[in-house]
Every structure is written in structure tokens, then in C-alpha cells.
Amino acid sequence: MSTIDKTLTLINFENNWCAQCYTQRPIINKISHDFNSYLNVRVVNSDAHPELAKKYNVYSAPSTILLRDGKIVEKITRFIDQSQLTTLIKYYL
Amino acid sequence: MRKYDVVVIGAGPGGMTAALYAARANLNVAMLDRGIYGGQMNNTDDIENYPGFTTIKGPELGEKMYQGTVKAGVNFVYGDVQNVTVDDQQMKHIQTDSDELVASAVIIATGSNNRKLGVPGEEKFSGKGVSYCAVCDGSFFKGKNVTVVGGGDSAISEGLYLANVTDGVNVIHRRDQLRAQKVLQNRAFDNDKIDFTWNTSVTEILGDENHVTGVKIHNNQVGDDTTLDTDGVFVYVGNFPNSQIFNNLNITDQAGWIITNDQMETTIPGIYAIGDVRQKQLRQITTAVGDGGIAGQNAFEYFEAIKHRQTVKD
Ligand SMILES: Cc1cc2nc3c(=O)[nH]c(=O)nc-3n(C[C@H](O)[C@H](O)[C@H](O)COP(=O)(O)OP(=O)(O)OC[C@H]3O[C@@H](n4cnc5c(N)ncnc54)[C@H](O)[C@@H]3O)c2cc1C
């Protein structure tokens, strides 16, 4: 993962088998676009990167993690809709 | 506000079949879903009882059904339906989280959702070791031991799937025998990686700040309480209908299952219900598909009858 130069980092864990990941994906894309100047966005396929799932203690897809200065500030272990995610990001910015 | 002849709510196997039949009858059809098409088939690994396929992965069957609806001209619309109302002209207004659709007929195919255990720790560790979808979350448990709670078809078939990806599966069931189909039972009994804890209920899910570490269990016969270590808990203890949004229509029984006749008609003309959300005996893909064909055809006849009445009036 590249170094974090923006204020916040969002990591979204997904895999090909999880139906809600398909619904989550466009929301993550939109958030990435809307907060482009402030937010690093990383989408991780948990099957391809089990070591990252382990590192962040992720056991469910989709899961979304927000890091501020490299520290986890939020961990959402289910689908999250756009308005809730937007509110969370604004709170931490 | 967009206008259609028929709106199908839910794009599981039932909804996709209803939409296919209605579209092939030349109706303008919208098929709404709040997630990806496929419904509960997306949460299923191998399907072995859908005719035409000796075995097929759930998401693959969903994709094939969806391609059929696209070819027939069905419009797939994303939306979380909030409620349905009927106006003086008998038109149905379908309110989603972002839009309103209007249609002559509505086919409800919202299916069902997994019932929770309702024990301490379940909510807290949901997504942190507690799961309701083996195919979504199973791969996070490679090299670990997991627990499956339940004894029906879903519990055993998903237990078999988990035995392939994890180190071991313990099935906890509150009775002394399984409800699952015999063929699944035999496969599970023959699988070295699956063992069973009988006559036992899970009373609490335990964990540290990050994830599940065990379950507290109660033996219903002996009456004693013990703790078992486990890394994950997969819950398959039945379903409840996704029908709360239709409460205003008064079309359900006390448990929330929608009541229909064998033509899939509810008590409201032009509103049909099909698949798992309906009060019925066998909730399967084949029966959802059967319901869908009947409702799609009847929605067409309903639409034609209205059109005819309209022409006579004019
Ligand atoms: C783990 C598991 C394994 C199974 N294995 C088998 C098997 O091997 N063989 C078999 O025949 N059956 C199996 N089943 C059962 C089968 O999946 C169901 O009977 C079938 O999917 C029911 O179809 P349906 O169209 O009625 O509803 P569902 O498949 O439940 O689809 C309902 C759809 O409605 C949508 N929806 C709900 N509410 C709203 C709303 N408010 N707004 C918009 N959309 C909404 C949902 O997102 C969903 O996509 C299994 C089920 C599970 C859980």
C-alpha cells in the first residue's frame, strides 16, 4: 500500500462472492471521486490479499475501514450507504 | 416519476421469472432491487436441485437468469422500496429511497432474510466472526475452526462448503437429528472435518475486542452450560419475510408472510406476491420460479383487462 499523504484513508474489503460488495462498489467509487483531495481510497480483494484482511482483523465482506494518520478510527463490518459514509468522512476530515 | 405496466419488487429467482414472463408478453416492466440481482442465490454455493444443472453455483445461476430478463427487455432499476400505495384509479405507487414509480400491477418478490439467534454477543460480533453468509465470509476463516448453528438444508449445505475452506466445522443443533435433506446429511456425516453437537443451543457469543473466540452453549437434555472455542459462528436458524414495508396493505398473516391464492393474487387487485415472501410450504428456487411464471402471466391478463375496460369507457 502506498504512503498516506492525505488526511484520511479508506480501505474497502470486498470479494467476488459477496452480493452486497457489488452494491458497495459504486458507492466507494462515488466517495473516492467526491473526496478526491482529502481521501486515499484502496479497494482490497480479500481473497487475493488474505494478509491484509488478517492485518486489519477483517472477517466479513464488505468491510470498510477509515484510518486517520495511519490509525483505525472506524471499522464498518457491513454494507454502508452513501449518506452514512459521507457523514462519517466529513466527521473525520 | 416513471410509469411502467408492471413493477416487480425484488430480483431473486421469483422476481426475475415474473419479470421475464411479463416482458415476453410485451409489457413495459421494471424490476427493482436494493442490491445485485440474484437474491439469496448469491449467498449459496452449490445448487443441486435446480433442474437442468447437475450442480451450479448460486451466483452463476443468478447471472444466467438475469441475462434472460435483459434479453426479454426488462428494465433493471436499483432502489430500496419504502412503501406501496394504491390510488383512486387503482394505480400502484412504488416509493423507493430515491424515486417514485407508477404501475398498473405490482409483483412482490422480496424474499426473506436470515433470522438472528438473538443471543448476547451476536450483534457485537456481527462481521467480526458472526456471519450469515458462508460464501461471502468463509474465506476469511482459512486455517481456522468455525461453528455452524442450525440443522436445516442451509446449515448443512453451507457447513459442507465451510468444511472445504476451513480446518474444521462444528455443527450445533438444538435437536438430536437434522432437518436437512438426507443426501446432505449423509455427506456431512461422511465428512471428517465436520462434527456435531446435538441437543444444544448457543446462549452467548464470546470474543475479545477484535473478533469471536468462542460460544457459550447449553445442553437441552443434560441441562449443563459449557464454553467451546471457535473462530467464527455461521448462523442458519431460519428466515423471516421481507414484508414489513407492505404493512399498510394488510396482506400478510400474523407472522408477516404474504397470503395469496394459487394465482399468486393478494386481496388487492393487481398486487401479486411470489417466492419466499409468500405463505407457503416449500421455499426453494424451483417454487419461487413457478410462482413467478404464474404471477407474470396473470399481471399481463390484469393489464389487458384494464386496457379493455378503458377502451370501452372511452
Ligand atoms: C444459504 C442458502 C442456501 C440455499 N440453497 C438452496 C438450494 O440449494 N436450492 C434451492 O432451491 N433453494 C435454496 N435456498 C433457498 C432459495 O435461495 C430461496 O428459496 C429463493 O432464493 C427465493 O427466491 P425469491 O425470489 O422469493 O427471493 P430472494 O432470493 O430472497 O430475493 C429477494 C430479493 O428482493 C430484494 N428486496 C428485498 N426487499 C427489498 C426492498 N425493500 N426493495 C428492493 N428490493 C428488495 C432482495 O435484495 C433480494 O434480491 C437457499 C437459501 C440460502 C439462504
From TrEMBL, chain A:
Any Pfam family matching the protein: Thioredoxin
Domain Thioredoxin, first and last residues per copy: 1-93
Domain of life: Bacteria
Entry keywords, A to Z: Redox-active center
Family according to the record: Belongs to the thioredoxin family.
PANTHER family: GEO12009P1
Keyword Metal-binding: no
Listed GO MF terms: protein-disulfide reductase activity
Name of the protein in its database record: Thioredoxin domain-containing protein
InterPro entries with a match to the protein in the record: Thioredoxin-like_sf, Thioredoxin_domain
Provenance organism: Lentilactobacillus kisonensis F0435
Cellular-component GO terms for this entry: cytoplasm
Automatic annotation (TrEMBL), chain B:
Cofactor mode of binding and number, as noted: Binds 1 FAD per subunit.
Domain of life: Bacteria
GO molecular function: thioredoxin-disulfide reductase (NADPH) activity
EC number per UniProt: 1.8.1.9
CC per GO annotation: cytoplasm
FAD/NAD(P)-binding domain residues: 4-292
Catalytic reaction(s) noted: [thioredoxin]-dithiol + NADP(+) = [thioredoxin]-disulfide + NADPH + H(+)
UniProt cofactor(s): FAD
Quaternary structure (record): Homodimer.
Family recorded in the similarity comment: Belongs to the class-II pyridine nucleotide-disulfide oxidoreductase family.
Cited NCBIfam families: TRX_reduct
Name of the protein described by the UniProt record: Thioredoxin reductase
